[in-house]
Amino acid sequence: MSQPSIRFAEFELDIESCELRRSGRPLRLERIPMELLILLLQNPGKLVRRQTIEQELWGDGGFLETEHSINTAVNKLRATLRDNSRDPRFIRTVDRKSTRLNSSHITI
User: Fold this and answer.
1) Long-range contacts: 26-32, Cβ < 8 Å, 24+?
2) To which H or E segment does residue 77 belong?
3) Is the CB of residue 44 less than 8 Å from the CB of residue 106?
4) Per-residue pLDDT tens over the stretch 76-95
5) Of 6, 8, 7, which Cα lies nearest the Cα of 102?
């Protein structure tokens, strides 16, 4: 059974409709950053390795520019969430090989 929505801070993500809202107002988010957000929210507080992100977002298709694409998706997600990479509230990059979502803000 899927989760209807996940709340974190002033945000709410409806997983079924792939709609992200801030304080009730819908936000635009492209498909790849949205899929990354869902992956991170489904693994709160856990390190998600870039290899896992690549597999979950692109599968076995062997997409060549995954490193750049993952960085781009993380940056777009940070911009949408108004998160700062130097003092992250939500998304923390760990050792350049893993990403973690701060789980202290999440309620399901």
Assistant:
1) 27/80, 28/80, 29/76, 29/77, 29/80, 30/76, 32/57, 32/69, 32/72, 32/73
2) helix 66-81
3) yes
4) 999 999 998 888 889 888 87
5) 8
